[in-house]
Design a protein that fits this description.
About 35% of the residues lie in helices and about 40% in strands. It contains five helices and ten strands, in the order βββαββαβαβαββαβ. It is of the alpha+beta class and about 210 residues long. Strands 1, 7, 8, 9 and 10 form a five-stranded antiparallel sheet that branches.
């Protein structure tokens, strides 16, 4: 698994104009290929009167799924430059649709490549990106007497507390980088006089 990846901060649209043609780039996070395809379908429906709705998406932290479409533009002048821009910016789990309303001036192959790739780049700059980092899910089990202090200490040291459950004991779910597990285990034993337990779970990605 990749240690981290970048994706778009939020869904949104950014418009540019090149020689009287309007280029609207819609970007959105996409956790699966199905989500990416559904987003493309929604934009195509919204802009059914547009000259072209070209798209590209990258799914997987290792970019295992990469697809693009020129939607009627000359081959390799729209979808591929869009995809290349996403990959150049190291974007993952993201879908881009560039809607073109033709303005009456032909741009030529080079102009189209610059326009479609540029529309994606400008949209990424405008909407912003976030880095998600791989971490290990971990569950701390501690008695009620020490739970409050442990929670406060976790938050004070910047640990992401994901969930807290109260039963016979208190279970606190956190995320830990793999490299920090041994250090954290030692800290927890010290902070709770050895009374707390740490159970490691699966891996996930979260905001860096």
């Amino acid at each position: 698994m990749q240690d981290e990846y970048r994706t778009v901060a939020r869904a949104g649209t950014h418009e540019t104009e090149v020689n009287r043609s309007r280029f609207l780039c819609a970007l959105a996070p996409a956790a699966t290929e199905r989500e990416a395809q559904d987003f493309v379908a929604a934009i195509r429906k919204e802009h059914a009167d547009a000259t072209h709705n070209c798209w590209a998406y990258v799914v997987g932290a290792d970019a295992s799924v990469q697809k693009a479409s020129d939607d009627g533009e000359p081959g390799g002048t729209a979808g591929v430059p869009m995809l290349q821009m996403l990959l150049r910016r190291e974007m993952r789990y993201v879908v881009a649709v560039v809607t073109r309303y033709y303005g009456g001036v032909k741009l030529g192959a080079g102009g189209l490549i610059r326009a479609y790739g540029g529309a994606v780049g400008e949209a990424l700059d405008t909407l912003g990106t976030v880095t998600r980092r791989r971490f290990r899910l971990a569950t701390v089990t501690v008695d009620h007497q020490r739970a409050g202090k442990v929670q406060n200490d976790l938050r004070a040291t910047g640990r992401a507390v994901r969930d807290v459950r109260y039963g016979e004991a208190v279970t606190i779910e956190i995320g830990l980088p793999d490299a920090d597990v041994d250090t954290f285990r030692a800290w927890l034993a010290d902070a709770t006089a050895g009374t707390a337990s740490l159970e490691l779970g699966g891996e996930a990605y979260g905001d860096a």
